[in-house]
Amino acid sequence: MNGRRDGAPTAADLFEPVDAARLGELVYQRVADALMKGALEPGERLRIREIAQQVGTSVTPVRDAIMRLVQEGALTMRSARDIRVPYVGSDQYREIRRIRLQLEGLAAEDAARAATSDDLARLAAIIAANERAIADRDIGQAVALNQVFHFALAEIAVLPILRDILRLLWLKSGPVIAAGYDVGGRVMIDHHYIVLDAIRRKDPEAARSAICRDIMAGGDAILATGLLDEEQA
Fold first, then answer.
1. d(CA 191, CA 219)
2. Cα–Cα distance between 76 and 12 in angstroms, integer?
3. Same fold, 20-84 and 91-226
4. 191-217: per-residue pLDDT in tens?
5. How many of the other CB atoms lie within 10 Å of CB of 64?
6. What confidence tens digit (pLDDT) does each residue in 94-143 have?
7. If we measure between CA atoms, which residue out of 143, 165, 142 comes closest to residue 154?
8. Which residues are within 8 A (CB) of 229 and not within 5 positions of it... i.e. 6 or more apart?
9. What whole-number distance in Å separates Cα of residue 153 and Cα of residue 68?
10. How is domain 91-226 classified at the architecture level of CATH?
């Protein structure tokens, strides 16, 4: 006897096949998140087999995810074996920044209109965690929390399409922001307090102005390093 009651599932019935498309999406989200949060550096090479080993899957979903990011311009393929995080030149960065000013300005405006007390607490917690990361010299975590703060504005504003567009921009600029974050110092976070204060006061115009000053000041610090032009050389 196998000890099973009539009608009880067998081992083969307990485990449904893993959806390959869903697995590819999960891998895609992990790599995309690493790009947006600056965990991958400009020029860094990605090896499909190594990533597959790290996430515990076959190479197929990783290859699918990588190719999707290549198509989106977030990664560049020099050859089938040479896939890298692309460098962003100063002109391209300035263009991305101009678009961010419009989109994130709108997100800040609507966030000021829509924010609840829980939303305000969330933004304050992100800033506090960012401060701790800076104090601990954990630049990787500080960069990641900077991205979380900016995206939180679009989430609070309930602008999912805008957030999707921002994601494409941050896929390209996340590694660059990370490269200059340490050099930027306090300018990379100080305006977040002003943004939070404007949202708390439900002042859309002030919120837009504050996030735009944040984007401009941080961008100027990155451009002043000369890193973008050097990387393109």
1. 13
2. 42
3. no
4. 999 999 999 999 999 999 999 999 999
5. 16
6. 999 999 999 999 999 999 999 999 999 999 999 999 999 999 999 999 99
7. 165
8. 89, 90
9. 26
10. Up-down Bundle (1.20)
The domain limits of the chain are: 20-84, 91-226
Would you tell me which CATH number, out of the four given (1.20.120.140, 1.10.10.60, 1.10.10.10, 3.20.20.70), belongs to the domain 20-84?
A: 1.10.10.10
Q: How many residues does the chain have?
A: 233
- 17 CB neighbour count, 10 Å cutoff: 5
Q: Where does residue 164 rank: exposed (0-12), middle (13-18), buried (19+ CB within 10 A)?
A: exposed
The whole-chain average pLDDT of the chain stands at 90
72 Cβ contact list (under 8 Å, min separation 6): 168, 171
At which residue do the structure tokens 């401009």 appear? 216
Q: Give the tokens for residue 126.
A: 């992100």
Contacts of range 45-54, beta carbons closer than 8 Å, 24 or more positions apart? 45/82, 45/83, 45/84, 46/75, 46/83, 46/84, 46/85, 47/83, 48/83, 51/27
- Rounded to two decimals, the pTM is 0.85
User: Which sign does the torsion angle of CA 99, 103, 108, 113 carry?
Assistant: positive
